Every structure is written in C-alpha cells, then in structure tokens.
Amino acid sequence: MPPKKSTKKENQIVLEDNSSDSDVPIVATKKRGYAKKNKIVLDPDSDSELYIKPQVEAKFKPNQFDIKTGSTQEFIANLNTYTLEELENYSAQYTDYQNTYACANIENTKILGQMQVQIDKLLQDIEKLRTQDSKNLEKIVEIKNVYDLIQKQIKKLQTEKLAQAQAQTKVLVPKPNPIAPIPVPVIKANSIDTLIPLITNEHQVAILNRIKSDSDYAKVYLQNFEQNEDKKKKTLKGTIKILGNYNRAKGIREGYEVKVFDKDPKGSFWCSCADHKFNSAKKNIVCKHICFIACKVLKILDTGFFETKTLTDVQLTELLNKFNVDSEMWKDKKIVRTSNKITIQDFKNFPKPIVDTCSFCYDEMTDADIPISCACPLCKHCFHEECMGVWLEAQTKCSFCSNDFWKYYKRIIGGEKEIDLGSSAL
User: What is the pTM (predicted TM-score) of this model?
Assistant: First the structure.
C-alpha cells in the first residue's frame, strides 16, 4: 500500500490589499488550516521584508496608585511591578502617614485621658450626692416619726383636758374642728391653648385638645336649656341639651343632656355621656361636653374648676343668665344650633378667603367664584355648582371627605326649600 500523503497544509502568507487611498499600512494574513486569522502588520519604514509588531499587554501602572484611596489588596497584588524608586517613594509616604496617625492617636489618647478624669470626678460627685440624699432621707424619716409622736401626745393631752372640763361642768363639749386643708393655688389662663400646659392630668389634656378642634365632626353645639320645675329636686337648676360629635356610621349627631346643680357634693355638672359615667371619678376628668360649657361658653379658664368640678356662686349666676331664653348667646351660630333644618345656605358657608381647587375641573378658586360655587358643610372644600351637579347625577357623597350630606343638597336643588333633619342630625 502506498504511504498516506500528509494533509498538513503549508504556511502561506496572504497579503490583503487595502483599496482605500489612506496611509494605512498593508496587512498580511497568516493562514494555518482552519485557524483564525492572525494580523501581521508590516512596518513600511523597516528594511526587512516582514516586520511583526509585537503586542504589548496593558500592565498596571504603579504611578497611578493613590495610597490614600487605593485598595491595599490591589497594591500588594502588583507589588512586583514597582521599581525601586517607586517603592522608596511609597515607603516615604507610608512613613509620613504612620507618623501622622501616631500623632493623632497620641492627641486622642490625651483627650480621652482628660475626659476620663472629668468622668471620674463627676462619678465621685454623684456618689457624694447619693450619700447626702440617703442621709437626708433618714433625717426626714426621723423627723416624721418625732412629728407623729408629738401629734399623738397633743391628741392625748386634748382628750385629757376635754375629760377634765366635762367632769367639772358636766356639759358636753363639742370636738375641736379639724385643721382645714391648705387650698390649692388657682392659676388662670386667657385661652384653651394656654390652659392646657397648666393641667397635669393627661386624660384631661386630651379632652381639652378635642374641644378646641375646628372640624365639624368634632364640634359641639348647644341646643336649648330647660329650667328645673320639680321642687323636690332642690339642687337641680336645669338641663342643657347638647349636640355632640357627628357619627359617620349613623349619619347623625349624638344628643346628650348636661344637668346643672347648685351646692351638690359631687359637683356642679352631670352629663349623660359614657365618658362622664365611667371616667369622671376613675380618671378624675371633666367630660368634653362639660368642658365645652365651662371653657367655650362661660370662659372659665382656670385650674381650680378642674380640681373641684364645682362652679362658684358668681359663675353659676353667670351661667343662668347666659342660658336665659332672652340671652344674646342663642344667636351665636358658632356654638348654638337650635334648628336642624337644612337649607341652601348650609352649602354656602365658605372659608375666608377661598384658596382652593375644584376637585372636578381642577380650576383654581377664589372669592370671586362664590356666586357660582358651593362648599361641603363638613370639610369646607369648595366646588363649582355646575361640576357638583354633574357629580351628583351618579353619586351622593362628597368627593373630598366622602360624607353623604350632599344627598340633601341634591333634594334642595331639586325643589325642596328646607329639610328637617330632627334634633340629633348634623
């Protein structure tokens, strides 16, 4: 059998001519089998027929390394690539930084030492004060014990003296009156905001914060006052009917009764609300409805009322005069709501000045838009009447606060002049 011919291809150099007129050098392509093309660049300035330009790999440039921000691992990994001069330069820099940090460390150590001395001194002072407090407490206990012994001896001598007097005169001598308690100082304020910091009861503070709210949901209104005609109830002066918070679930305002008493041991007021029934004695508070009468109607802004829960004779007289049928107070619509009839005017109470945006057309609204606008009685948001009319064709709730009071507006613009909501409605 004849020997097999070798299939190995000879090395060939194929020159690829560039047809462009540019100065780009001629490139030779070296082929071996099916291997990829390796570019060989011919240097036109060289005397040799074939000049292969060596490929220089990009090496790490030590001069670009910054010892302040550079990574230590990166520096160590390329340590063998640095020259002697570069390493000496970096060594000098590291020595400078080492000295700098050493000086900073020494300074910090001095500061820490000074602070530690101050802390030790403060701890010693604290310990002295604690020892002094302990001694003072022991002294107080000792003085109290002596005081108790003195009181017992005084009581004993008073009893003996009383017995001797009774034996001599054979007349019953009344017991001496107990020492009257020291009255609590009364501090007066000029507003609810300045009264709140003077009240120490946190539950009472929370109630006072609620009655100063301007939200229609939280507002309380007077309805009427009925004088007491039952002669058997001598201390009862009358009953104040009040409309409380608006209940969104029920769609009405809750109605309450506040009774006014004169010289009653439990106080001058009694309210039918749950807060008064369950928390008046337990948390030592005055409920929201009584606070409304005392603070907003009678302008009683002193701490004494919240301690005693009792009106003075002057304050009680002022209350009865204000709640008289002919009083000017009943004309104040901010605190009084005697009629619960809804008219178109309830939807024309605008905030002043009007700075709002219609939720439907997104136009800016001002006081000039009042003739063609309406406002929600609860959230006071303003709308154009035309926009609200389109909205109410499919909805009955306010687009801003979602209350359903606008169902009455729909009936009013439909022809009804007024709607009677009853005594407990909004």
Answer: 0.44
